[in-house]
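User: quick one, fold this
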Amino acid sequence: MSQKYIYKAFGLNWESKNLALSELLKGEEENLKVDVKIKKENPNLWPQINSNELETPFLKFLNNEIRLKINGIVNFRITNGNEISFNQENNNIKSNDIKTFLLGSVFGAILIQRGLLVLHGNALEKNGEAIICLGHTGAGKSTLAYALVKKGWKLLSDDLVVVSDDLEVLPGIPRIKLWQDATKAFKINTKNLSKVRDEVDKFIWVPAENQISQNQVKLSKIFVLTNQNPTKSEDTIITRIESEKIALLMLRNNAFRPRFVKGLKKEGKNFLRLAKLQKFLPIFKMNLPKKISEMNSWLEENDLLN
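Assistant:
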């Protein structure tokens, strides 16, 4: 028997059939307008896509459609910003493996198809102001986000951050993915936490309801985390980026899945939105402490809203 789940994220209502997405906030089913439908489907029903210059062995584009293949796990068809179809490659594939890619690349693709600006980072809110922390994998975004939540900040979104044309951050996926070294440093009991994937020592931490922000919040500042791994305490500083060119370049480097943006022909609009962020918001470079154990004391010395 088919089971339907309703969720809300990024200002949209998501309907998922037979796949529970516990990381998302539940939506109200009564009189609900569904914006995006998620369903399992036989890929033999999917129309053929011809080759183009942006194609890879795992990625294909056709107009406002993306095909994404995760070898040995799952295939996705993402269409028109309103439908996600998937098919796991065998019956032994676990739902966590599917959700890892669904809540990352696939949700990002849907948002890009809908013409939204999507950044790769975390967003948090305090006292009615939002900040975004951007950075590539391993820069420390999740570690910083967890430490901030424990200091009274509210989580707006993890991994995917959407900024509206009014420079507001939309509430997205309210969970944080932490590597095992971070859980040990923060003394988090992982026995009751799900793993991102069974073979990966990365855990999903879901904040309490009062640690989550469910409203659009005006964006105040953007921080770009570096991978410099400072060796001296004086190197762990926050520096405003004064150069407009460098600030815009750092924003472009932290846009979510640039190949998706290019393949969907959204580059022009994306650039204009990034330029608007650079023009109206202060952007800072942030070097985090090398040791996670130093994070809390470092944050006490650095008020991210001042």
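User: anything notable?
Assistant: The first helix runs from residue 95 to 113.
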